[in-house]
C-alpha cells in the first residue's frame, strides 16, 4: 500500500481545529502558517459555525517566527483572542512551523492558565498524525488541562450519566445528526448522555461533568478509544465499546441492549420497552416499502462499495446487506489510515458481516489507487458507491449510484441529516433510493 | 531595474520585490501618496485571524492546466484545498464545454520521521507514480512549510525527474510562511511556468494572452473584431499552449494582483508587450484601457469606433441605474487591484463608497508602469475614499467597521466575509466571476445585481435577528485598528 495520497479524505493533525469548533463556544487559536486553517476548513465543514473559518485566531507564522521563534507572536494573539472573541474555552493548536522550530507553546499557554484563563494547548503539527488520531489528543488536553482543574465534583458519580465518544465532528459530515440520534436513543433507554459536541450538548459546562459519568460509551472503530481509556485511568470510569456506527433495526437494537446490560443503574425493562417501540416503528416502514425493493423492475443497486472510514464502512455494510439486501462487492475500502493494531478487528467484522457471508477489506489512504482497483474489477450488476465527492466520475464511468458520505462531500449540503440509529437507517434508505430513482427520466 | 530573474529557483516575495504591505489605515489618497513617494510603511497586527497562504494561490493556477499533474510536497493537511480546486476546475469545464475530468493532484504525505530524515525519496516516488497514473505532459511540485523548514532540495529531484521522465517536472516554491501576501503564490506559479515551460518564440502570432482565473469569456468578441485571438492562461490551458505564450502579440491581465509577474516576465524576457493601463472598470478606466489596447495592437481607429458604439449602447441604461442607486452607501472588501476596480465601478454607478478593506497593497507592479496604478486612477477620477484599510482578511476589523458604518450594501470578493454583513442585517453581495463587471457592459451587469441585492433583504433581516456574534462587546466599542501597529519599515523598491 502506498503512503502517498491522491484524493485526500481527511486532514492532518491540525485538522482537529474542527473538533474544537464543534464544542459550543470553544474556539481554537492556531499557531501555524497562514494557510493551514483555511485549507482545513475547506475540506472539513460547510459553514464556519460560531467562530470557525475566517474567525479563527491565528499567528499566521511568517519567516521571522520560523527563524526567531514565534512565542512572542503567540502570546500577543492569545492575549487579543481573550479580548476580542467571546468564548468559554480556547484551545491552542500548533502547526508544522511552530512544531518544527520548537516553540514552547506549553509554557506560553501555562502563563494564561496561571491567570485563571480557560485555555488549553496541544501539539498538532500537521506531520505528526492526522485528525482521526489528534481528535483524542484534544479531548485529553481539555480533560487534563481544563476539566481536571475546574470540574466542581470529580469524585461523585451521577447514576445514569454517560459520556459519549461517537463521531469526529466535521470529519464525519453527519456528526450533528448522528449525535442527535444517539442522544435521543440513549435518553430513550433511560441514560443522561453528555454528547459533548454540537447543538445537542451543553457546551463547556457539560464537559465539566465528564468525571462524574457512571460509564462511558465509545461508538467507533477506533477513534475515541484512547479518550475512554484515559478517563478509565484518571477517574476509574468503565467504558462500553461498540466498534461501528449502529444503523437500522438490527444493529441499533443490539447496541442499545448491550448498553442497557452494561449500565448497572439502568431499568432494563423500561429500556426494552423503548427498543421494542422503536423497532416497531422502524420495521413498519421497511415492511411498507418491501414490495418496492422486491419489485422495482428497472434496476436498483445490487452490489455496493464502501470507500469510508472504518466506523462507517462496517456500520453501513451490515445494514445494507442485512436489512436492504444489497450485497458487498468483493473488496471494501477503508480510508482512515487505521492504525495497525485495530485492523484485524475490522477485518473480523467484515469476515462475519452476516450469518452467511463475508467480505474482504483493504486499507488504503490513496483514493486514486482505490479507484483504479474498482475500475479494473467493476461489477456486472448496478452498483452503489458510498464514498466521497472524488467518486463522481468513477460512479458515472461504471454506471453506479453515488451517495457521498465521506469528506469531501461537497455535492450535498448537510444540516441535521444523520445516518445513525433507527432514524438514520430510514434516512439512508431515502437518500439512496432518491438518487437511484432520480436517474430515471 | 527589471524585476524578473529566471535564474532564481524561487521568485522573490512581493514584500521584497514590490514593497507590498498588508497593514494600513487611512484614506485611499494617503495610501497613493505614500506609495508614490516611496515612504510606505507596513503595519503589523498583534492579534490576527487566519488568512490564506501562497501554496493555495500557486495551486489555484497550476492545478487547472489540463494535461499536467500536481504533486504537493507536504503533510496531508496542505492538500485540504485539492477538492475545492477540483470543484472549480470542473465547473469551469462545464462553462467551457470541456469534457469532465478530475484534477490529478498528489500529496507526498510528509510524516514525523520524514521531518527528521528528509522526504526526497518520497517525493521522487510520488512524482513517478503521478506520471504512471496520469501520463501528464508536465508535473508541478508545490512546496510547503514543512518541506521548506526541513530544507528539502526539491529542485535536485525535479531536475533529475525531468531527465528521467522526459517531461518538464517543475519546482514551484510557495511555502506558506515565506510571505504575508498570499498572492505571492501566483508569482511562484508563473515563475515556474516561465522558467521551465515557456519556450523562446519562433514567430509572432495574432494571439493575445489573457491571464485570468476561470471567468466567462468576455474578450473573444472584442479581440476577434480587431483580428486577434484570445488565449486564456493559465487555467484550462494545455502545456503546449503555455509553451508558446512567448509568441503572442500582447498580454492582458484581468487583474494585476493576479498577473503582475507573468505579464512583466513575458515582456521582459520575450518582448511580449503588456497592456499597461488602468483596469477596464468604470467608463474612464475602460476608455483608457481600450485606447492602450488599440495602441499596442495597432488598431487605434477601430478602438475609437468601438468605444463610441459601446458607450452609446450602455449610457441610457446606465443613467437609469444611476438614478435608482443614487444615495446608496456601500462598504467593500476585496483583494487589491480588483478592489480598486470595484471602487471605480461603484463610484461610476453613483454609489457612495464609505470604505474598503483591501487585502494588501502593491505600491507598484512588476511592469513599473504608473499608468497601470489602479488606485491612483480611481482616486484621481472619482475622488478619495475615506475609510481605506489594508487588511489581510481580518474579519474582526471588518465586523467592527461594519457595525459602525452600517452601509446600505456590502460587497465582498472573497469567501468568509459576506457573513458579517448579513449577520448585521446588511444586504451583501459576492460575485465570483471577475469578468462579470468588466468593460462597458460590466457596469450594467453589476448595477443589476446590486439592485437585486438591495431589494432582497428578507433573508438577512431574519438572519440578523437570530444570529450570535462571536465578538465581544468590548471589541465592538474599540477603534477598529486597535491591534494594528508597528509600522515596520518596508525596504525601498
TrEMBL record, chain A:
<protein>
    <submittedName>
        <fullName>Nitrogenase molybdenum-iron protein beta chain</fullName>
    </submittedName>
</protein>
<feature type="domain" description="Nitrogenase/oxidoreductase component 1">
    <location>
        <begin position="12"/>
        <end position="436"/>
    </location>
</feature>
<dbReference type="Pfam" id="PF00148">
    <property type="entry name" value="Oxidored_nitro"/>
</dbReference>
<dbReference type="InterPro" id="IPR050152">
    <property type="entry name" value="ChlB/BchB/BchZ"/>
</dbReference>
<dbReference type="GO" id="GO:0016491">
    <property type="term" value="F:oxidoreductase activity"/>
</dbReference>
<dbReference type="InterPro" id="IPR000510">
    <property type="entry name" value="Nase/OxRdtase_comp1"/>
</dbReference>
TrEMBL record, chain B:
<feature type="domain" description="Nitrogenase/oxidoreductase component 1">
    <location>
        <begin position="59"/>
        <end position="454"/>
    </location>
</feature>
<dbReference type="InterPro" id="IPR000510">
    <property type="entry name" value="Nase/OxRdtase_comp1"/>
</dbReference>
<dbReference type="Pfam" id="PF00148">
    <property type="entry name" value="Oxidored_nitro"/>
</dbReference>
<protein>
    <submittedName>
        <fullName>Nitrogenase molybdenum-iron protein alpha chain</fullName>
    </submittedName>
</protein>
<dbReference type="InterPro" id="IPR049939">
    <property type="entry name" value="NifE-like"/>
</dbReference>
<dbReference type="GO" id="GO:0016491">
    <property type="term" value="F:oxidoreductase activity"/>
</dbReference>
Amino acid at each position: 500500500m502506498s503512503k502517498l495520497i491522491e484524493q485526500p479524505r481527511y486532514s492532518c493533525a491540525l485538522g482537529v481545529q474542527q473538533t474544537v469548533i464543534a464544542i459550543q463556544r470553544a474556539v481554537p487559536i492556531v499557531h501555524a502558517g497562514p494557510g493551514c486553517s483555511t485549507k482545513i476548513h475547506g475540506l472539513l465543514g460547510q459553514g464556519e459555525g460560531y467562530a470557525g473559518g475566517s474567525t479563527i485566531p491565528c499567528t499566521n507564522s511568517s519567516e521571522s517566527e520560523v527563524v526567531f521563534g514565534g512565542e512572542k507572536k503567540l502570546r500577543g494573539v492569545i492575549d487579543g483572542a481573550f479580548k476580542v472573541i467571546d468564548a468559554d474555552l480556547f484551545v491552542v493548536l500548533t502547526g508544522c512551523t511552530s512544531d518544527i522550530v520548537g516553540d514552547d507553546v506549553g509554557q506560553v499557554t501555562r502563563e494564561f492558565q496561571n491567570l485563571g484563563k480557560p485555555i488549553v494547548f496541544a501539539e498538532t503539527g500537521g506531520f505528526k498524525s492526522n485528525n482521526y488520531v489528534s481528535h483524542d489528543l484534544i479531548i485529553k488536553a481539555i480533560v487534563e488541562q481544563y476539566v481536571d482543574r475546574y470540574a466542581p465534583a470529580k469524585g461523585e458519580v451521577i447514576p445514569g450519566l454517560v459520556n459519549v465518544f461517537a463521531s469526529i465532528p466535521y470529519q464525519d459530515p453527519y456528526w450533528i445528526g448522528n449525535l442527535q440520534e444517539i442522544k435521543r436513543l440513549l435518553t430513550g433507554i433511560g441514560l443522561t448522555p453528555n454528547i459533548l459536541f454540537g447543538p445537542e450538548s451543553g457546551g463547556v459546562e457539560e464537559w465539566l461533568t465528564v468525571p462524574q459519568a457512571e460509564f462511558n460509551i465509545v461508538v467507533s472503530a477506533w477513534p475515541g478509544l484512547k479518550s475512554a481509556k484515559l478517563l478509565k485511568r484518571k477517574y476509574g470510569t468503565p467504558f462500553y465499546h461498540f466498534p461501528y456506527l449502529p444503523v437500522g433495526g438490527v444493529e441499533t437494537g443490539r447496541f442499545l441492549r448491550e448498553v442497557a446490560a452494561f449500565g448497572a443503574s439502568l431499568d432494563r425493562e423500561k429500556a426494552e420497552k423503548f427498543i421494542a417501540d422503536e423497532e416497531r416503528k422502524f420495521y413498519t416502514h421497511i415492511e411498507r416499502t418491501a414490495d418496492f425493493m422486491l419489485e422495482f423492475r428497472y434496476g436498483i443497486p445490487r452490489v455496493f462499495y464502501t470507500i469510508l472510514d472504518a466506523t462507517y464502512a462496517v456500520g453501513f455494510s451490515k445494514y445494507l446487506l442485512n436489512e436492504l439486501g444489497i450485497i458487498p462487492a468483493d473488496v471494501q475500502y477503508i480510508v482512515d489510515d487505521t492504525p495497525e493494531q485495530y485492523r484485524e478487528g475490522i477485518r473480523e467484522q467484515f469476515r462475519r458481516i452476516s450469518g452467511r457471508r463475508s467480505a474482504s477489506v483493504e486499507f488504503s489512504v490513496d483514493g486514486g489507487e482505490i479507484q483504479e482497483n474498482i475500475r479494473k474489477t467493476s461489477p456486472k450488476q448496478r452498483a452503489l458507491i458510498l464514498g466521497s465527492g472524488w467518486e463522481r466520475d468513477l460512479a458515472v464511468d461504471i454506471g453506479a449510484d453515488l451517495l457521498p458520505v465521506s469528506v469531501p462531500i461537497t455535492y450535498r449540503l448537510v444540516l441535521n441529516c444523520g445516518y445513525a440509529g433507527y432514524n438514520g437507517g430510514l434516512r439512508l434508505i431515502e437518500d439512496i433510493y432518491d438518487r437511484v430513482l432520480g436517474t430515471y427520466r | 531595474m527589471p524585476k524578473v530573474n529566471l535564474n532564481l529557483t524561487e521568485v522573490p516575495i512581493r514584500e521584497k520585490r514590490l514593497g507590498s504591505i498588508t497593514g494600513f489605515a487611512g484614506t485611499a489618497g494617503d495610501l497613493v501618496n505614500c506609495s508614490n513617494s516611496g515612504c510606505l510603511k507596513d503595519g503589523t497586527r498583534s492579534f490576527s485571524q487566519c488568512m490564506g497562504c501562497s501554496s493555495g494561490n500557486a495551486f489555484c493556477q497550476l492545478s487547472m492546466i489540463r494535461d499536467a499533474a500536481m504533486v504537493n510536497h507536504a503533510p496531508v493537511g496542505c492538500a485540504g484545498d485539492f477538492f475545492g480546486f477540483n470543484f472549480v476546475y470542473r465547473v469551469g469545464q462545464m462553462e467551457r464545454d470541456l469534457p469532465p475530468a478530475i484534477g490529478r493532484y498528489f500529496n507526498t504525505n510528509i510524516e514525523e520521521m520524514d521531518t527528521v530524515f528528509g522526504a526526497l525519496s518520497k517525493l521522487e516516488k510520488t512524482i513517478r507514480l503521478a506520471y504512471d497514473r496520469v501520463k501528464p505532459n508536465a508535473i508541478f511540485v508545490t512546496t510547503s512549510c514543512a518541506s521548506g523548514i526541513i530544507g528539502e532540495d526539491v529542485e535536485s529531484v525535479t531536475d533529475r525527474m525531468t531527465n528521467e521522465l522526459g517531461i518538464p517536472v517543475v519546482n514551484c516554491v510557495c511555502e506558506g510562511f515565506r510571505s504575508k501576501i498570499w498572492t505571492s503564490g501566483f508569482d511562484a506559479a508563473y515563475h515556474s511556468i516561465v522558467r521551465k515551460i515557456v519556450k523562446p518564440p519562433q514567430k509572432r502570432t495574432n494571439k493575445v494572452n489573457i491571464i485570468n482565473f476561470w471567468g466567462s469569456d468576455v474578450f473573444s468578441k472584442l479581440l476577434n473584431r480587431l483580428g486577434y485571438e484570445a488565449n486564456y492562461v493559465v487555467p484550462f490551458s494545455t502545456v503546449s499552449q503555455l509553451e508558446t505564450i512567448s509568441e503572442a502579440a500582447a498580454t492582458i491581465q484581468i487583474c494585476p494582483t493576479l498577473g503582475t509577474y507573468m505579464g512583466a516576465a513575458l515582456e521582459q524576457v520575450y518582448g511580449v508587450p503588456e497592456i499597461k493601463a488602468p483596469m477596464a472598470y468604470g467608463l474612464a478606466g475602460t476608455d483608457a484601457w481600450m485606447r492602450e489596447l488599440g495602441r499596442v495592437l495597432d488598431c487605434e481607429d477601430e478602438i475609437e469606433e468601438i468605444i463610441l458604439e459601446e458607450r452609446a449602447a450602455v449610457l441610457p441604461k446606465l443613467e437609469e441605474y444611476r438614478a435608482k442607486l443614487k444615495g446608496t452607501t456601500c462598504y467593500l472588501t476585496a483583494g487589491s487591484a480588483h478592489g480598486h476596480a470595484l471602487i471605480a465601478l461603484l463610484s461610476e454607478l453613483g454609489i457612495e463608497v464609505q470604505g474598503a478593506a483591501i487585502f494588501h497593497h502593491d505600491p507598484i507592479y512588476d511592469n513599473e508602469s504608473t499608468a497601470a496604478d489602479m488606485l491612483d486612477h480611481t482616486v484621481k477620477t472619482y475622488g478619495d475614499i475615506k475609510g481605506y484599510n489594508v487588511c489581510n482578511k481580518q474579519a474582526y476589523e471588518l465586523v467592527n467597521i461594519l457595525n459602525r458604518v452600517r452601509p446600505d450594501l456590502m460587497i465582498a470578493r472573497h469567501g468568509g466575509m459576506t457573513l458579517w454583513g448579513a449577520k448585521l442585517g446588511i444586504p451583501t453581495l459576492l460575485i465570483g466571476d471577475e469578468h462579470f463587471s468588466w468593460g462597458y457592459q460590466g457596469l450594467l451587469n453589476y448595477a443589476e445585481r446590486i439592485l437585486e441585492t438591495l431589494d432582497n433583504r428578507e433573508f438577512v433581516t431574519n438572519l440578523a435577528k437570530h444570529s450570535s456574534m462571536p465578538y465581544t462587546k468590548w471589541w465592538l466599542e474599540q477603534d477598529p485598528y486597535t491591534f494594528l501597529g508597528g509600522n515596520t519599515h518596508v525596504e525601498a523598491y
